[in-house]
Amino acid sequence: MRASPPRLLAAAVGLLGCASGAAAQPVPAEGLPVEKISLQNGMRVLVLPRQGAPTVSLVVQYGVGSVNERLGTTGIAHLLEHLLFKGTTTVGTRDLVAERELLARADAAHDTLLALRGIHDSTGMARLQARVRILEDSARAYVVSNEFDRILSTNGARGLNAITTVEATTYFVELPSNRTELWFVLEADRMRNPVFREFYTERDVVMEERRMRVETSPGGLLYESHLATAYRMHPYGVPVVGWMSDLENLSREQVEAYYRRYYGPNNAVVAIVGDVDASRIRGWVRRYLEPLARGDPPPPVLAVEPQQRGERRVEVEFDAEPALRVGWHVPDLFHEDAPALAMLSSILTGGRASRLHRRLVVEERLATSVTSSMGPGDLFPQLFQIDAVPRAPHTTAEVEAALYQELETLAEEPPTEEELQRVRNQLEAGNVRRLQSNLGLAFQLAGSESLFGDWRQTFRLSRRVQGVRPGDVHRVVRRYFLPSNRTVATLVKASPLPSRPELAR
């Protein structure tokens, strides 16, 4: 991610973590005057004019994420997210012909480097690595660095960024309304004519991001290890950033071919929310976006996670304070039990009055924090996850025991109607806040249309919480929160090595 705000997408697209229950009265959000434009190339464009400040929020979401990758090429979607800010055949270059000649020579050296890795020729590899760097540095003489960003920024852009998740890649920006056509010009050019310049440098940036956010981060390492232990078959267990060995081997040709094949307009949704004229938007959509050529559907996810038949535990050694993650396999977002599971998450950790926060953080002071969520995606069976950080001198074992006690209480006796009403009130307040943000609405519209084929769906999911009853929560706790269905990951400090006399004994 380019310093992306992951909470923004989770809040805007993923009411999903707060979805619940049976039917209720429609809420006004489902009646928003959203115009859907379906293009012949398969792209869908959602337009929501809103009076107010003369600004517009623009979101493009591709239905391609890390679940669509294959082992050996993991991290390719996230790397593409970075590369699509590098410009096009006309943006970001002083001499495209000269630049491309040097890029081709760098790619040839990299191909030879990959061949030498197979025969473990370290001397030749070092020489070729240096050659790749020199050729890319030479090509940089023809690059206008960050020109795509600069053009938008000098025209008043705010928040230009992108994010990759397990199931989507999303680009977004806010602009003055009178610069909307400029966005169409630049985005259509970026979709049609990207140049993945500075490829090896940017690949190194992504590899460093992996080191910083996972390999040298106790929380990142615990998260990755937990998912990899819980998911042995399904790609939900593979990190979005990719495995390091895969990143080291990705080539420009490979990444560009993946883009050309799967990032076509038929896999893209555009959401435009703000002070715009819908008729002018329609004209720009037809002029700039409809001529784009279709691509292939993203690779299907065929893997199915086998039923877990016994508790799994993993310890992650790191020089950091202890931490705990516990997860249980639960169904996907559209299963009949998903609403009650989302309600359960809020009952356990949704605010200061929630059960686990009140007990662990406030009353018994066993933990400094406790949160819960469902993920890592929405389209396939999920993991109900609880994260907690013990408060010294308490241990992860004490916190874990307390978690299970609270779940056992809910398995024996349903939550109160007052607890459920508190959650309903929180969701209603969240619905109001979402409607106040143009960018939040654009995220939600694009995400819902891209993932579920209907921009109204996340609004429907949000209001279904009104139908959850205490018995529904009681039922799902008894059904899914079994010892044989859980995966536990703990962060522990590495044990010091024994002295030599002890080794001898």
Total domain modules: 3
Total DSSP helices: 19
CATH superfamily of the largest domain: Metalloenzyme, LuxS/M16 peptidase-like
- In helices, the fraction of residues equals 40-55%
Characterize the main sheet.
6 strands, mixed
Strand order, largest beta sheet: 1-2-6-3-5-4
Secondary-structure class:
alpha+beta
Average pLDDT metric: 91
Alpha-carbon Rg, integer: 25 Å
Kindly state the number of beta strands.
11
How would you spell out the order of helices and strands? HEEEHHHHEEHHHHHEHEEHHEEHHHHHEH
In the CATH classification, which architecture of the largest domain applies? 2-Layer Sandwich
Global geometry: globular
| CATH class label of the largest domain | Alpha Beta
What is the CATH topology classification name of the largest domain? Cytochrome Bc1 Complex, Chain A, domain 1
Portion in beta strands: 15-25%
Beginning-to-end CA distance, first to last residue:
51 Å
**Spans of at least 5 consecutive residues with low confidence:** 1-27
